[in-house]
Design a protein that fits this description.
The protein has about 110 residues and is an all-alpha fold. The chain folds into two domains: about 10-50, no CATH class; about 55-105. It has helices spanning about 15-25, 30-50, 60-65, 65-70, 75-90, 90-105. α1 (about 15-25) runs antiparallel to α2 (about 30-50) and α5 packs across α6 (about 90-105). The longest helix has 22 residues, at about 30-50. The relative contact order is 0.10.
């Protein structure tokens, strides 16, 4: 399944009309929040289902899942090499692993 299958076209002006209706309704703010939550959740779900492989051939989510094992040194050499490449190019994952390493040293 491709990400294009998750989208369907709407008639021109549909979203503008929806926005106009919500703007004039007294409970619009509540509905706007609900709509934003649904759109955010569905977009996030689509991204997770189709997430691309990151640097080093490993995704950020996969790296986080094995972070403790990485810090403990219990992973195989191939996975460690992938993580080393990934963290050298991904600030967020590098920061995450540094926090895990600092915590491991303090325990």
């Amino acid at each position: 399944m491709t990400s294009d299958e998750n989208w369907s076209p709407v008639e021109p002006g549909t979203l503008h009309e929806l926005n106009r209706q919500l703007s004039t309704d007294k409970s619009a703010w509540t509905r706007r929040g609900a709509i934003a939550a649904v759109l955010t959740a569905s977009a996030g779900g689509t991204w997770f289902a189709t997430r691309p492989t990151g640097p080093g051939g490993i995704t950020c989510l996969d790296l986080v899942a094995v972070g403790k094992e990485y810090v403990a040194g219990t992973l195989d050499a191939d996975t460690i090499a992938k993580i080393d490449i990934h963290r050298s190019q991904c600030f967020n994952c590098d920061s995450h692993l540094k926090r895990l390493e600092a915590h491991a040293k303090s325990v």
